[in-house]
Write a structure and sequence with these properties.
It is a single chain. This protein folds into 2 domains: 3-55 and 161-295, no CATH class; 60-153, Alpha-Beta Plaits. It has helices spanning 3-19, 21-58, 71-82, 95-106, 136-143, 158-197, 200-208, 213-254, 264-292; strands spanning 61-65, 87-93, 125-130, 149-153. The model has no long low-confidence stretch (mean pLDDT 78). It is built from 9 helices and 4 strands, in the order H-H-E-H-E-H-E-H-E-H-H-H-H.
């Protein structure tokens, strides 16, 4: 395409937006409202996913080594665990460390357990992490069969419910986001279609004088792009501002907690980029789908 023709398409698309002021406002408003909903929901879902990932990463298998096992037998058990394909890493925690951990976790009440420092009844422990947290249950059941594994603990009963809840929340979130996007495309397509119907005579005249379908489409393509970009400005500003204050309020209160939200930067810039791309694609798609019916031979 020649540069002069491209400049003409840009000029015509800009003129069209100004000539059809109310329809432009309606289209931009439809994009804006939809992207605000998508942006807010996306921010919530991404932070919920962050929390879910943190919970998954905290899931571990604690293998209590048989009290009668000697060093060679402990090494054999460790090697058997490390040979499981799903295992990411194995960390050893001595019974002395386990007792100290118990004392620290109990606070003031834990001081009573110091009596056991000379005659420690606890087991040495292997702390096992899996490559995929959902493999925890499968790996734990395998380890239970090993000879020198006295007890295998992984939060049985609770872990299954956690994984199930996380899976359901992620699936529901994905379905809702997809649903919002399709709703947006439908609404914007219909809004833009009204604008194009009002200009069907203009399209027919262009076809009668020999204009190609591509030549006719380009101004509408660019018009949809501008509508999408304009519609993304307010959602970006609102979502960025809202998350700035939400982050400033929540972050200090979550300090030291295992639940953490995504850092303001670069997350907000990623959301802004996503909204710009989504707005542009939705606007282009809506315009092209609407003008297509008028270009059929």
């Amino acid at each position: 395409m020649k540069a002069r023709t491209l400049r003409r398409h840009f000029r015509e698309s800009a003129k069209s937006l100004s000539r059809n002021g109310w329809m432009t406002f309606a289209s931009v408003s439809a994009v804006t409202v939809t992207l605000i909903l998508v942006g807010v929901f996306f921010v919530i879902m991404m932070n919920l996913n962050r929390v879910a990932t943190t919970i998954e990463e905290d899931v571990e298998i604690r293998v209590h080594i048989d009290l009668t096992a000697n060093q060679q037998q402990r090494d054999l058990l460790r090697k058997e665990i490390e040979n499981i394909p799903e295992v990411k890493g194995v960390q050893f925690s001595s019974k002395k460390q386990e007792l100290q951990h118990l004392i620290d976790s109990m606070g003031e009440e834990g001081k009573a357990y110091k009596l056991f420092e000379q005659d420690n009844p606890l087991n040495d422990v292997f702390i096992v992490k899996t490559k995929n947290p959902t493999d925890t249950i499968k790996v734990a059941k395998q380890i239970e069969k090993f000879q020198y594994a006295d007890k295998v603990k992984y939060g049985q009963g609770k872990v299954e419910n956690i994984f199930k809840s996380i899976k359901v929340s992620r699936n529901v979130g994905l379905v809702l986001i997809i649903g919002l996007l399709f709703t947006a495309m439908f609404l914007i397509s219909n809004t833009i279609k009204i604008t194009i119907i009002a200009r069907k005579n203009e399209i027919e005249i262009m076809r009668l004088v020999g204009a190609t379908n591509a030549f006719i489409r380009w101004p509408f393509f660019l018009e949809g792009l501008w509508l999408g970009l304009l519609g993304s400005i307010i959602p970006i500003a609102l979502v960025s501002t809202a998350y700035y204050y939400a982050y400033g309020y929540l972050q200090p209160r979550l300090e030291g907690n295992f639940i953490q939200i995504l850092d303001y930067s670069p997350f907000v810039y990623q959301v802004a980029f996503l909204l710009v791309v989504m707005g542009a694609l939705i606007g282009i798609w809506g315009s092209l789908m609407s003008v297509r019916k008028f270009l059929k031979v």
